[in-house]
Automatic annotation (TrEMBL):
Organism: Phocaeicola barnesiae
Location of the Tyr recombinase domain: 209-377
One example of a Gene Ontology biological process annotation: DNA recombination
Lineage per the UniProt record: Bacteria, Pseudomonadati, Bacteroidota, Bacteroidia, Bacteroidales
Family the UniProt entry places it in: Belongs to the 'phage' integrase family.
InterPro entries assigned to the protein according to its UniProt record, in alphabetical order: Arm-DNA-bind_5, DNA_brk_join_enz, Integrase-like_cat_sf, Integrase_catalytic, Integrase_recombinase_N, SAM-like_dom, Tyrosine_recombinase_XerCD
Name by which UniProt lists this protein: Site-specific integrase
PANTHER family recorded: PHAGE INTEGRASE-RELATED (PTHR30349), PROPHAGE INTEGRASE INTD-RELATED (PTHR30349:SF64)
Gene Ontology terms, MF aspect: DNA binding
Signal peptide range in chain numbering: none
Length: 383
């Protein structure tokens, strides 16, 4: 039986690691006594974090061990393919096969990601999230080719995510990075790049801040503002429209009255899929929202999200609130002040909001103290 090259992980080949200095974990492929190929795994550890061929005493030990195992499986797969095609598995044939596999993508990193994504068999909701991440990366224009995959550019992308939408919280930003990492690790495994830029750029998971909505008095104050400035007036009207429909900025931007609205028993409803998640939502167009549509002859004005949020910040200062008005706050206001505070069942709220899971809607319910107070008042009368 033909003996195939041995593939294994080796740590600190150059004997550099210590308690304060990291050493590299590399994949060693032995073709003969005189021929070996050393490939990067992108994993670096301190001396006490490698034991019996495994990552230990590391916060991400499980993920790093899986990454190393996947790399070994990938290289063994290439070796098997060469052997099955009847060729000798040598340093040269392996290197050629590896170059062929990695080279078919040219220099386009995003095209590479889409190709890998299609092969991963992701669930529909996960697939949408990954596509959203890649299109956001494309929009940033910071990372296009494999050569762009540097720690400096990852940091630039992180900064861009924060500036592009100031309402993005740290857990959301963390998820963008989390979805990118598997594709970068695949590029390392294929030898397209030597190491992951995330080795030198760490992203904190973070925590979601409590979500704030406008109360009835604040919402009334926004509606009552006399705004001679045309841009401020339009932004206020769009905000009111979203406060009474729950539309996110992307959904409002894509809204088309003639295609997205159905009339049932004389009442208009928006019946559409959310841009971000593809989830269906079905929500009534309440009178304040309909008044906005009528004002603009059923064709809403448009602003970029950055410009819109900048105008909303001015409007917030005009009504004297410390809350940072944004497209997200309009959505929270619809869920809490407009719906939950008026005892609309949480299942209906979830459908109107287009949430993928009712647990997401329950987060909105938690921030509404008035609903607890109402229930307490009822209980006091009963008991």
């Amino acid at each position: 039986m033909l003996k195939l090259p041995n593939v294994k992980a080796v740590f600190d080949r150059k004997k550099k690691s210590s308690a304060v200095t990291v050493g590299k974990v590399e994949i060693e492929i032995t073709f003969s006594r005189t021929q070996r190929k050393i490939l990067s795994s992108g994993v670096e550890l301190y001396a006490n974090q490698w034991e019996d061929g495994l990552v230990v005493r590391h916060a991400n030990a499980k993920q790093l061990n899986k990454k190393i195992t996947d790399l070994i499986k990938n290289y063994k797969g290439i070796i098997r393919t060469i052997a099955q095609e009847g060729e000798d598995v040598t340093y040269q044939t392996f290197s050629a096969a590896l170059d062929k596999k990695s080279g078919k993508y040219g220099t386009d990193f995003i095209e590479f990601c889409y190709d890998i994504m299609e092969k991963r068999g992701l669930r529909a909701s996960t697939l949408r999230a990954h596509k959203c991440t890649l299109e956001t990366l494309r929009e940033s224009g910071i990372i296009r080719t494999f050569d762009d995959l540097t720690p400096a550019n990852i940091k630039k992308f992180d900064t861009w995510l924060r500036k592009q939408d100031p309402d993005r919280e740290q857990p959301t930003i963390y998820n963008y990075h989390k979805r990118l990492k598997p594709y970068i690790n695949e590029a390392v495994a294929l030898g397209i790049i030597e190491e992951s830029p995330y080795i030198r750029f760490k992203v904190d998971r973070g925590r979601h801040k409590p979500k704030e909505a406008l109360n009835e008095e604040e919402l009334a104050a926004v509606r009552a503002l006399d705004l001679p400035d045309e841009s401020l007036s339009k932004a206020r009207d769009l905000f009111v429209f979203c406060c009474y429909t729950g539309l996110a900025h992307a959904d409002m931007d894509a809204f088309d009255f003639s295609h997205d609205v159905v009339t049932v028993h004389g009442r208009n409803y928006i019946d559409k899929q959310r841009v971000k998640t593809g989830t269906k939502y079905y929500t009534p167009i309440l009178p304040p929202a309909m008044a906005v549509l009528e004002k603009y002859r059923y064709s809403l004005p448009r602003f970029s999200q950055q410009a819109y949020n900048r105008l909303l910040k001015c409007i917030g200062s005009l009504i004297g609130t410390k809350k940072n008005l944004s497209s997200h706050i309009a959505r929270y206001t619809f869920a809490t002040t407009v719906l939950l505070a008026h005892e609309v069942p949480i299942e209906s709220v979830s459908k109107m909001m287009g949430h993928t899971r009712i647990q997401i809607t329950q987060v909105y319910a938690k921030i509404l103290n008035s609903s607890i107070e109402k229930q307490a008042e009822r209980l006091s009368e009963i008991v």
